[in-house]
Design goal:
single chain, alpha/beta, globular
């Protein structure tokens, strides 16, 4: 697991700006969605992955634990699958122009629907009542390239817990866009995975300073349980 290192200076800055270290601790469990970003073979399986992040395997138990807690307290779970289709070669040509041809070919191979790479990691606890959503850019909240924001709003969900891989690319992109699409957004510190501790912590710090909240798996579950108990009392 990553060694989480958020400087006290950062926490103090957040408290001075928002009045609390955790502005979304009062989340409503019934309006909360767990967003699991890109925990697919194409990022996690040796020999299949086009962009392997071995740390992503380590967070799977925490993601499953969060999924169970979210369901139990009235929220919903969303499994996001990074997806390539042929239109991406033209509509996202700048990405491919920056990428070596053999790397683009491997990405196409592992991110296209119907491939082993596109499938979710087998150890994830995916339930029939959960929702799978495709995304065609790094962010799961970018209008025109994912239906996720519309689905969440249609279901009355206003708070999102961001987990998945990699922290500093698809997860942070999704988290920033979620906030700017007016969702209360929490990045789970030990529910995201990057290639290094430095990249992971830098992403969390940047997000926390301006865009939203960060909490550990246990902190999120504690909020869910406390708040659902208060709502039922």
């Amino acid at each position: 697991m990553h060694e989480i290192a958020i400087p006290q200076r950062v926490v103090d800055t957040v408290v001075a700006r928002r009045g609390t270290a955790h502005p979304f601790a009062d989340l409503d469990p019934s309006k909360t969605a767990l967003i699991v970003v890109d925990l697919q073979n194409g990022f996690m399986m040796d020999g299949v992955a086009h962009a392997l992040c071995t740390m992503a395997r380590e967070i799977v138990p925490n993601v499953n634990k969060l999924a169970s807690a979210v369901r139990a307290t009235g929220g919903q779970v969303f499994w996001i699958q990074n997806t390539h289709d042929e239109s991406c070669l033209e509509s996202w040509s700048n990405l491919h122009a920056m990428t070596l041809p053999e790397k683009t070919a491997k990405r196409v191979e592992s991110m296209s629907e119907g491939t082993v790479g596109h499938d979710l990691w087998a150890d994830l606890d995916v339930k029939l009542d959960d929702t799978k959503v495709l995304k065609y850019r790094y962010s799961a909240f970018l209008p025109g390239y994912s239906d996720l924001p519309d689905i969440l709003r249609a279901r009355g969900l206003d708070t999102v817990l961001i987990t998945g891989t990699v922290t500093n690319v698809c997860c942070e992109s999704s988290a920033r866009d979620a906030m700017m699409m007016n969702f209360k957004t929490i990045m789970v510190t030990d529910g995201n995975a990057a290639n290094t501790d430095e990249e992971h912590n830098s992403s969390l710090i940047n997000f926390y300073l301006t865009f939203g909240d960060i909490m550990s798996t246990d902190e999120v579950i504690d909020c869910l349980n406390k708040n659902v108990a208060g709502a039922r009392s």
